[in-house]
C-alpha cells in the first residue's frame, strides 16, 4: 500500500498561489491521464474501502473531483455511485444542505430517490482541506434514510485539521 501511495503522490503537482494567493493547489489530474496510475488509484481506494468500510453499498462522491474518485473504484467494489452536487444541478426531488464557506454560504444537494434505508454509504472525495465541504456532505446524508459508514479522502492537508468532528474519517496521503 505505502509504495503504491508514493507512486500516486509523486505524480501529483503542487501549484503555489492557485487559485488564490497563499493556497498551494494540489493537482490530482495526473492520476487519471495515465492508465497504470488510474489502475493503481483504483487498487488503493478499493483496498481502503474493503478494509475500513465493509458492507458499503453506495459511494457518494462530492462534486466534482469526488466524482472522479468514486468512479475509479465503484465498479471494482461492485457498489453504486451517487453524486452530491452544488445547488440547482439535479432534477426531481432533492435533499439540500446549506453550509458556510470562507466567505458566505453555499448549498449542496442529493437526489432523494438515490438512497434508501438499506443503503450503507461511504462519502468519497479527492482532498480534505478545511473540512467544510465534507461536513456539509455528512449532514446531508444524515437527513436521508441511509446509514453513513464514514468518509474517505485520498489526500488530507493535515495542518488545517479539517477532519476534526467527522466520524470514521480515513485519508491515505498526508500533506
Ligand atoms: O475541505 P474544504 O476546505 O471544504 O475543501 C475541499 C474541497 O475543495 C475541493 O473542491 P472544490 O470546491 O474546489 O470543487 P471541484 O472539485 O469542483 O474543483 C476538493 O475537491 C474538496 O471537495
Ligand atoms: N490546496 C488544495 N488543493 C487542491 N484542492 C483543494 N481544495 C481545497 N484546497 C485545495
Q: Could you describe the 3D structure shown?
A:
By secondary structure, this protein is of the alpha/beta class. It has a single domain (1-174), classed as Rossmann fold (3-Layer(aba) Sandwich). The protein is built from five helices and nine strands; from the N terminus they run H-E-E-H-H-E-H-E-E-E-E-H-E-E. The chain has helices spanning 2-11, 30-33, 35-52, 65-77, 132-142, and strands at residues 13-16, 24-27, 58-62, 80-86, 94-100, 105-111, 120-128, 147-156, 169-174. The strands form two sheets. It has a seven-stranded mixed β-sheet, sandwiched between helices. The protein has a two-stranded antiparallel ribbon with strand order 1-2. Strand 5 and strand 6 (105-111) form a beta hairpin. Helix 1 (2-11) packs across helix 3 and helix 3 (35-52) crosses helix 4 (65-77). The two termini are 17 Å apart.
Pick out its properties.
175 residues, alpha/beta, Rossmann fold, seven-stranded mixed β-sheet, two-stranded antiparallel sheet, 5 helices, globular, binds 1-O-pyrophosphono-5-O-phosphono-alpha-D-ribofuranose, binds adenine, adenine phosphoribosyltransferase activity
Write a short abstract of this structure.
The protein has 175 residues and is an alpha/beta fold.
- Total beta-strand segments: 9
Largest sheet: 7 strands, mixed
- Which H/E pattern describes the elements? HEEHHEHEEEEHEE
Which CATH-level-2 architecture? 3-Layer(aba) Sandwich
Number of helices: 5
Give the averaged pLDDT, no decimals: 96
- How far apart are the termini? 17 Å
Strand-pairing-aware structural class? alpha/beta
The CATH topology annotation reads as Rossmann fold
Assembly state: single chain
CATH domain class: Alpha Beta
Strand content: 25-35%
Low-confidence stretches: none
Pathway: Purine metabolism; AMP biosynthesis via salvage pathway; AMP from adenine: step 1/1
Family: Belongs to the purine/pyrimidine phosphoribosyltransferase family.
Keywords: Cytoplasm, Glycosyltransferase, Purine salvage, Transferase
GO molecular function: adenine binding; adenine phosphoribosyltransferase activity; AMP binding
Amino acid at each position: 500500500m505505502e509504495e503504491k501511495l508514493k507512486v500516486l503522490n509523486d505524480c501529483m503537482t503542487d501549484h503555489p498561489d492557485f487559485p488564490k494567493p497563499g493556497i498551494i493547489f494540489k493537482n490530482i489530474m495526473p492520476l487519471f491521464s495515465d492508465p497504470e496510475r488510474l489502475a493503481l488509484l483504483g487498487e488503493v481506494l478499493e483496498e481502503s474501502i474493503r478494509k475500513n468500510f465493509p458492507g458499503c453499498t453506495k459511494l457518494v462522491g462530492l462534486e466534482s473531483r469526488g466524482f472522479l474518485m468514486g468512479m475509479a473504484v465503484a465498479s471494482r467494489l461492485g457498489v453504486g455511485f451517487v453524486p452530491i452536487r452544488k445547488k440547482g444541478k439535479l432534477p426531481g426531488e432533492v435533499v439540500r444542505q446549506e453550509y458556510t464557506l470562507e466567505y458566505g454560504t453555499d448549498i449542496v444537494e442529493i437526489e432523494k430517490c438515490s438512497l434508501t434505508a438499506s443503503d450503507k454509504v461511504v462519502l468519497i472525495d479527492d482532498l480534505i482541506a478545511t473540512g467544510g465541504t465534507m461536513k456539509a456532505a455528512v449532514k446531508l446524508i444524515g437527513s436521508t434514510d441511509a446509514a453513513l459508514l464514514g468518509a474517505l479522502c485520498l489526500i488530507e492537508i493535515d495542518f488545517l485539521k479539517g477532519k476534526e468532528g467527522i466520524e470514521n474519517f480515513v485519508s491515505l496521503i498526508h500533506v
